[in-house]
């Protein structure tokens, strides 16, 4: 869509409601992704859907800017500054999907606007739409996919379903019937599942779904994450995308795969068959842009203090600014298929990251590389994580926020209002969490001293 939000007419609102009725839908969940990618919204009985679709569904306007504890943060411009005013949720008909574990219920993803018709620039879906629009103005579409890891534990005991580090062990993955049910539920929810495997942690899973074009890719990632959480709860399980829930065990990531294609022809512009690694000049510039702005993007790729407990050498979680062909230790891994599948994988983002903002930050950085014709340094030999000469990524949240604040080109791409909101909310989260006394400190000092 060219507009920041879908504009409904009486005809489109009527058609939207009629299509839902024909599919026996009785309730519709109007959902939006907040700053963290969490689903917020309202559930609407079918007889009121058409009216709310046409006129917009009122919701607290600061919902998109709530912090991780649902606290309205002062100074964002979305809360006390405007007397906690409402916004309007505008459903996007292209995003309707079933909620299979609830009878006759569907969801629709919404954009948000103020009552005077202005979009909310800090809304993550709007941020990504604006970046995709810029790519389109340059003549390019974006194909992308998010690859999530998460832990699954018994909801009552918080214990994993199995122990050890049995990565790719098929029998353990299928010991619990919930996985097979979840795969079916995700498919019924409109998420095209392609693979499932166990990861390094005890009952840590990785479920992959097909890449898609444009905003639809982030929409599917949003549905995926929220479906995993909500459905497994009905099975007596708790799924967590928390980046580093356990000391000494694997963290959970969101590897991000992306390529650009020419809108006029559909041709993958990352591919150059004459290059030894299949990398076109555009792919090299795009990669260079990601590396140049990686420190600033780190704040968005890893948006909580806990995320930085994962950023450690020799853990398959990149800790420096590097690239490599098929190198799992590099920040940017070139998937050198040398055919139409040629793409790159950004391995830095955490599982807790917002899929819309991960995509927006990566695309923004890559497009800056193209606009500035950035030069990609030659690949160095050997494992990139073992090379201490690479510039290090920020290893604390306040460091990445400082890098974001200093990167004016990157801020301009993402939008100054969004970056202001993000910085304000994340700074408040850091300060709030610092007030807690970690158990490790009490254990270390309380008795002995």
- Count of discrete structural domains: 2
What's the β-strand tally? 15
The 3D shape can be described as globular
Q: What series of H and E elements makes up the topology?
A: HEEHEEEEHEHHEEEHEEHHEEEHHHHH
In percent terms, what proportion of residues is strand?
A: 15-25%
CATH H-level name of the largest domain... which superfamily? Glutamine synthetase/guanido kinase, catalytic domain
What is CATH's topology name of the largest domain? Answer: Creatine Kinase, Chain A, domain 2
Determine the structural class based on helices, strands and strand pairing: alpha+beta
| Overall pLDDT | 95
Radius of gyration: 22 Å
CATH class of the largest domain: Alpha Beta
Helix content: 25-40%
Q: Give start-end ranges of low-pLDDT stretches.
A: none
Question: What is the topology?
Answer:
Blueprint: H1 10-22, E1 27-33, E2 39-45, H2 49-55, E3 57-60, E4 86-91, E5 97-98, E6 105-113, H3 124-137, E7 140-154, H4 170-173, H5 177-188, E8 193-198, E9 204-209, E10 212-213, H6 215-234, E11 237-240, E12 254-262, H7 281-292, H8 294-301, E13 323-325, E14 332-335, E15 343-346, H9 355-371, H10 397-406, H11 408-414, H12 416-434, H13 439-445
Parallel strand pairs: 1-6, 13-14
Antiparallel strand pairs: 1-2, 3-4, 4-6, 5-6, 7-9, 7-10, 7-11, 7-12, 8-9, 12-15, 14-15
């Amino acid at each position: 869509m060219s507009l920041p939000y879908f504009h409904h007419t009486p005809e489109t609102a009527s058609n939207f409601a009629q299509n839902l009725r024909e599919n026996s839908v009785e309730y519709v969940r109007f959902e939006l992704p907040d700053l963290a990618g969490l689903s917020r919204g309202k559930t609407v009985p079918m007889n009121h859907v058409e009216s709310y679709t046409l006129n917009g569904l009122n919701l607290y306007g600061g919902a998109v800017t709530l912090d991780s504890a649902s606290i309205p943060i002062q100074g964002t411009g979305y809360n006390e500054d405007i007397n906690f005013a409402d916004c309007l949720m505008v459903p996007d008909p292209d995003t309707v999907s079933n909620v299979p574990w609830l009878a006759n219920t569907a969801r629709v993803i919404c954009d948000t606007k103020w009552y005077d018709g202005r979009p909310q620039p800090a809304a993550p879906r709007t941020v990504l739409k604006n970046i995709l629009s810029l790519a389109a103005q340059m003549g390019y579409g974006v194909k992308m996919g998010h690859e999530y890891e998460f832990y699954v534990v018994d909801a009552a005991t918080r214990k994993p379903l199995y122990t050890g580090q049995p990565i790719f062990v098929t029998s353990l993955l299928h010991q619990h019937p919930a996985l097979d049910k979840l795969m079916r539920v995700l498919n019924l929810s409109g998420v095209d599942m392609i693979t499932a495997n166990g990861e390094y942690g005890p009952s840590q899973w990785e479920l992959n779904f097909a890449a898609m074009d444009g905003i639809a890719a982030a929409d599917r990632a949003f549905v995926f994450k929220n479906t995993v959480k909500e459905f497994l709860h009905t099975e007596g399980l708790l799924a967590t995308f928390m980046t580093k829930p356990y000391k000494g065990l694997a963290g959970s990531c969101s590897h991000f795969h992306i390529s650009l294609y020419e809108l006029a022809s559909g041709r993958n512009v990352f591919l150059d068959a004459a290059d030894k690694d299949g990398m076109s000049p555009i792919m090299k510039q795009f990669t260079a842009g990601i590396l140049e702005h990686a420190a600033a993007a780190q704040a968005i790729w890893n948006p909580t203090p806990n995320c930085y407990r994962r950023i450690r050498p020799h853990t398959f979680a990149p800790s420096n600014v590097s690239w490599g062909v098929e190198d799992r230790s590099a920040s940017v891994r070139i998937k050198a298929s040398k055919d139409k599948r040629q793409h790159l994988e950004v391995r830095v983002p955490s599982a807790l990251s917002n899929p819309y903002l991960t995509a927006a930050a990566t695309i923004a950085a890559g497009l800056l590389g193209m606009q500035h014709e950035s030069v990609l340094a030659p690949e160095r030999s050997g494992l990139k994580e073992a090379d201490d000469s690479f510039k290090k990524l920020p290893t604390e949240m306040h460091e990445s926020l400082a890098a974001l604040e200093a990167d004016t080109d990157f801020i301009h791409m993402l939008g100054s209002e969004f970056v202001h909101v993000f910085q304000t909310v994340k700074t408040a989260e850091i300060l709030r969490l610092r007030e807690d006394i970690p158990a490790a400190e009490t254990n270390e000092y309380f008795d002995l001293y």
